[in-house]
Design a protein that fits this description.
Layout lengths: L2 H12 L3 H14 L1 H13 L7 E5 L5 H9 L4 E6 L2 H13 L5 E5 L11 E7 L8 H11 E12 L26 H10 L3 E8 L2 H20 L7 H21 L7 E7 L1
Parallel strand pairs: 1-2, 1-4, 2-3, 4-5
Antiparallel strand pairs: 5-7, 6-7
Helix pairs in contact: 2-3, 8-9
Length: about 270
């Protein structure tokens, strides 16, 4: 069993259960290193008092919209995804949770046509799924106001998606590419009319190990037999402290290389 089927199982469990979805978001924030890096970067870009217009481009479960809705109380947040069920579940959860400044719609990022509307665009683990990536980056540039910022989190080409060459099968599945090099994503952003202001490799020597012990190995265990899921609490009892320390170290380290990328570009 790989990542996406497991993700769907948990997503279905919490789909219309507001309390469980909040717990689910918390677990995602704790267990996924990318969330540590994305949230830290967002906090470095804006103060909690900023009233900004935010576009969550490919919001998935909506965990980052939830983080931003709580942090930026004066913000307006609009999220899109290509999956109807994701959009319906997010609209249901945010309405039941009392967030009046957040809404979601079904949309294809290759076909959006927004102009000078957003102060900030967040795009987490989406670009690796899109073949026409340069078209999407141009759409983002058009959607941003002058001085607006785009934050992209995506795998790198240095082992991202747990693939170590172009012929290696991705552990994550459904990817149009295994990842980006620094030069590749910088060049494409510049061609779209954006200037890179921040670039960081994530999942370096500490983060890669944390991902294997915290995410990959448990998923492989669960894939062998559903009965083995019962041993995962015992597994995490012995490994979670180790995983969390490695994740913290990754956020504090200037990684020379890494299997993930966080990049910020400005219009």
């Amino acid at each position: 069993m790989k990542y996406d089927p497991v993700k769907k199982v948990f997503g279905d469990i919490v789909a219309r259960k507001v309390f469980l979805r909040r717990i689910f978001y918390k677990l995602l924030d704790i267990m996924f290193l990318r969330s540590w890096h994305v949230r830290n970067t967002v906090k470095s870009l804006y103060n909690s008092s900023d009233s900004i217009n935010i576009f969550d481009a490919g919001m998935g479960f909506g965990q980052y919209s939830y983080f931003m809705a709580k942090r930026f109380r004066g913000a307006k947040i609009f999220g899109v995804d290509v999956k109807d069920e994701q959009v319906e579940d997010c609209n249901y959860f945010f309405e039941k949770s009392g967030f009046k400044n957040v809404r979601f719609e079904v949309a294809d990022l290759t076909k959006i046509n927004y102009s000078n509307e957003y102060d900030f665009i967040l795009n987490v683990d989406v670009m690796e799924h899109i073949i026409e990536d340069e078209l999407v980056l141009k759409n983002f540039a058009n959607a941003l106001k002058k001085g607006g910022k785009l934050l992209i989190n995506t795998p790198s080409d240095l082992g991202g998606s747990d693939a170590h060459d172009e012929h290696d099968e991705s552990f994550i599945e459904e990817h149009a590419r295994n990842g980006y090099s620094k030069e590749d994503i910088t060049t494409k952003l510049e061609r779209a009319g954006l200037k890179v202001s921040h670039f960081k490799y994530t999942y370096g020597k500490y983060g890669t190990v944390s991902w294997r012990f915290g995410i990959k190995y448990p998923i492989l265990i669960a894939g062998v037999s559903k009965l083995l899921i019962l041993i995962l609490p015992i597994y995490y009892f012995f490994t979670l402290w180790f995983v969390l320390i490695l994740m913290w170290l990754d956020t504090k380290t200037s990684n020379e290389t890494g299997t993930g990328i966080v990049v910020v570009a400005e219009k």
